[in-house]
Amino acid sequence: MESIVFQSNLYATQSGKNFSPLTLEELILFLAINLTMGVKRLPSYRDYWSTSDILHDPYVSSLMPVKRFTWILGNLHLNDNTLMKKKGDKDFDKLYKLRPLITHLSEKFLSVLQPSKHQAVDESMVKFKGRSSLKQYMPKKTHKERL
């Protein structure tokens, strides 16, 4: 979490705009608000701070001002952009910006996984029609375009 705070503040500094540095407490509140938004869905994230009685969420709006939430949303970073390898470089990583999170979660999942003797692994695929360099074409599958 401290790394996310550091990288987000670094990114904001690199953008050259005046800002109030992100703190660990704010990051935790930001994540809590995002979890709440996943449970109570509204058309736009700004609706949680709306003046309309129908949309307004007093819990979310009491935790953080919408302006600060928007700033964090736009500056949240996990890795330093200046160290990212260019496309075409042999060490280029399509998931560079998410790599710290992927690595951390992989380590945590492996530390808590207690596989049994008899374990089956199944491939799950999600239908996808958008653009992505991670999309795979599988001609033998019923739904050929999957992510």
TrEMBL record:
Q: Which domain of life is it from?
A: Eukaryota
Concerning InterPro entries, the annotation shows: PGBD
> PiggyBac transposable element-derived protein domain spans which residues?
2-144
Task: Read off the Pfam families from this record.
Answer: DDE_Tnp_1_7
Q: Which PANTHER family did the record assign?
A: PIGGYBAC TRANSPOSABLE ELEMENT-DERIVED PROTEIN 4 (PTHR46599)
Q: What is this protein called?
A: PiggyBac transposable element-derived protein 3
